[in-house]
Design a protein that fits this description.
The protein has 363 residues and is α/β, with parallel strands linked by helices. The protein has helices at 16-21, 42-51, 54-58, 61-74, 88-95, 114-118, 130-143, 156-165, 173-181, 183-207, 224-244, 264-268, 283-290, 309-323, 343-360; strands spanning 80-81, 97-100, 104-107, 149-154, 211-216, 253-257, 274-276, 295-297, 329-330. 48% of the residues lie in helices and 10% in strands.
Length: 363
């Protein structure tokens, strides 16, 4: 596959994902799966082995395209999502991202001081992050209009969590301490990241992404007032910037804040098109909270994919029944698929979503 392939097609063969985000009627419920291109697929593991390591895979547009398309060749999914990592922005800022075997992401140069934060700037999306934009362009072309392509970023709060801690953590106490003891410094970091996330997503839109998603993986670590001040405020800033730019203003934006179900109404106020919902809140309650203002995406517990096909079908129907026969639902997991899952169980899930979704609509 080459970046000189013919121009990307503007005609979608399957647009039910985008119609659901617009809260329009669909023939059945659209479905895609967070981390659908990942370690549960043997073909993904083979491609990653050829790449040598995760970053080698993520920074190679041809390989990133290959693994993005792999799940679409197995399952009748209604959307593709760019294969990348949420930490590409801080890596482009010079923090030195690496992935230690079995230990997750690590930064060689964590951000801990005022001087560290003052050195940060918004990366050039066609220089430091050109490999991501090349991947988006290539994937969009290779999809040939099969399904829409989702671009994504980590949220400013989630990126800051890793940048200050320097690695993964259960509580990211260093950043939380900065918020309490040096709030102005924390806000400066988060503002820089919000501007970077917005520029990153706008560049993905210009490269061919047809929907955009912000992953606020660690927003649920915050209490109600800190969530609004340090997480939601900056996601809203990103949404405002996307709506102001010609490349992205017409694209639907999905916000997903894990563990923050009590904030759905406030998140809907940002003007996003959809909200991801984890499995700790019933979709009927989520619909009531947002009062039909946005689409909802979710929310099967990923662990259910380790159960029998009968249990998977039953739980898929339970999620669909919870949302009901209403427009504006994209079926997904409440978080990313885990490496232990049998791919055949994903097929069971996808097929049941479509079959029961049609049944709900009287089809």
């Amino acid at each position: 596959m080459a970046l000189t392939d013919p121009e990307m097609s503007d005609t979608l063969k399957n647009d039910r994902f985008l119609r659901a985000l617009r809260r329009e009627a669909t023939d059945t419920t659209p479905v895609w799966v967070m981390r659908q291109a990942g370690r549960y697929l043997p073909e993904y593991r083979a491609t990653r082995a050829r790449a040598g390591n995760f970053m080698g895979l993520a920074q190679n547009p041809e390989m990133a395209c290959e693994v993005t398309l792999q799940p679409l060749d197995r399952f009748e999914l209604d959307a593709a999502i760019l294969f990348s990592d949420i930490l590409t922005i801080p890596d482009a800022m010079g923090l030195g991202l690496s992935f230690a075997q079995g230990e997750g992401p690590q930064f060689a140069h964590p951000v801990r001081t005022k001087a560290d934060i003052e050195r940060l700037g918004v990366p050039d999306m066609e220089i430091e992050l050109r490999y991501v934009m090349d991947a988006v362009r290539l994937i969009r072309r290779e999809l040939h209009g099969r399904v829409p392509l989702i671009g994504f970023s980590g949220s400013p709060w989630t990126l800051a969590c890793y940048m200050v801690e320097g690695q993964g953590s259960r509580d990211f106490a260093r950043l939380k301490a900065m918020c309490w003891s040096e709030p102005a410094l924390a806000h400066r970091l988060l503002d820089t990241l919000a501007r970077s996330v917005a520029a990153y997503l706008i560049a993905q839109a210009a490269a061919g992404a047809q929907a955009l998603m912000v992953f606020d993986t660690w927003g649920g670590l915050l209490g109600p007032a800190p969530f609004r001040e340090f997480s939601l405020r900056y996601m809203a800033q990103v949404v405002d910037a996307l709506k102001a730019d010609a490349a992205s203003r017409d694209l639907p934006v999905i916000l997903f804040s894990k563990g923050a179900g009590r904030h759905l109404a406030a998140m809907a106020d940002t003007g996003c098109a959809g909200l991801g919902v984890d499995w700790t809140i019933d979709l009927a309650d989520a619909r009531e909270a947002v009062n039909g203002r946005v689409a909802l995406q979710g929310n099967l517990d990923p662990a259910i994919l380790l159960a029998t096909p009968e249990v998977i079908r039953r739980e898929v129907r339970r999620v669909l029944d919870s949302y009901g026969n209403h427009a504006g639902h994209v079926f997904n997991l409440g978080h990313g698929i885990t490496p232990e899952v049998d791919p055949e169980n994903v097929k069971v899930l996808v097929d049941e979503v479509h079959a029961y979704g049609r049944q709900l609509r009287g089809g």
